Amino acid sequence: MTLPLAIDLSSVTSQTFVVGVVVVAGIYALVALGLQLNVGYTGISNFGAAAFMAIGAYTMGILVVKVGISFWLAFPLAVLAAILFGLLIGLPSLRLRADYFAIATLAMAEVVRLFAQNARSLTGGNQGLFCDLSGSHGCFTDAWNKVAGSINDLLANLGWSGASSGSGLASWNGPNNLFPLLIVVWISVVLVALGLIYITRSPWGRVLRAVREDEDAARALGKNALSYKLQSLAIAGAIGAIAGMFYAIELTTIHPLDFQPLFTFFAFGVLILGGLTSYWGVPLAAILLMVIIEGTRYVDLGLSEPRVAALRFALVGLILILLMALRPQGMFGKREEMVLGE
């Protein structure tokens, strides 16, 4: 007799799985933190998060691989490019309200992705942006590899060394290749969360709340609502660019298919699951969502692979529907914070 449901625990407890899931969860958490500032505090529905990620990743990759600029200079330039792009898009579109702005940002994200897909000489097109095989400029991951090596050396000095082998928890003999990235990504998540908490508790943050709850009233009090919304969008763009560069380092390549609207929708799923205006709920929700999405790969239901993939996303949708029905404010959100421009 065989059970209809089986779970390969050795796979979901292996270091490769755990580290990979937590790294991606950290990247989603960064994107969702930027959306938290936009949606939870400013009341603007930004569906262009994938565009900011793509701008950051491609700018960094092109500057390093095509131009030959140092990674450490390309990193802040990529963040600046995402900020300028957010301001350029926000100036005409932030005058739109509610759903219209969401549609505009979604369209903007698709324009960025399709441009990257068709600008073959610049971005590599559908083949993606890889290392400079001629060796003149190298890879955009070269500088990161040196940092990762230093982190691994530090971990070895602390007593954690050796190559991982086997399966399950027994394979955790030494740090995974992605473990240094995990550390840096989650340090970034904590620092960004702390920074956002600080600025949203300031007078500037209170103006954002005023714009969210009643933009006309904020204008009547002499506040430039457009300026504050532009600032919120620019900060979210900078955070999205950093997440995009981490994503490129994790994948070791930059491909337009990696920045489809689905990424933004998952980030919104993290935001809804964690709760509006709850910065610390976002990282926990990102881990939970990624464990559900990736962990269900190893559930044997006796179905074909396409059906299992569809079932995994249906499960995520069901969880979000139940959450919205039973706790619409999310796991850590507050119901009184759900008034968005009403």
Could you describe the 3D structure shown?
The termini are far apart. The mean pLDDT is 85. Helix 2 (15-42) packs parallel to helix 8 (179-200), helix 3 (49-67) packs parallel to helix 5 and helix 3 (49-67) crosses helix 11 (225-251). The protein is 68% helix and 1% strand. With 342 residues, it is mostly helical. The protein has helices spanning 9-12, 15-42, 49-67, 71-93, 98-118, 120-123, 142-157, 179-200, 203-213, 215-220, 225-251, 261-274, 281-295, 305-326, and strands at residues 6-7, 299-300. Strands 1-2 form a two-stranded antiparallel sheet. It is globular and about 60 Å long.
Describe the structure using short key phrases:
342 residues; mainly alpha; two-stranded antiparallel ribbon; 14 helices; 68% helix
Q: Which sequence of SSEs, written as H and E, runs from N to C?
A: EHHHHHHHHHHHHHEH
Major sheet strand order? 1-2
Protein structure class = mainly alpha
Question: What's the β-strand tally?
Answer: 2
How does the overall form come out from the CA principal axes? globular
Distance between the termini: 57 Å
Q: Report the total helices.
A: 14
The low-confidence runs, each spanning 5 or more residues with pLDDT under 50, are none
Radius of gyration: 21 Å
What fraction of residues sit in β-strands? under 5%
Q: How can the largest sheet be summarized? A: 2 strands, antiparallel
Mean pLDDT: 85
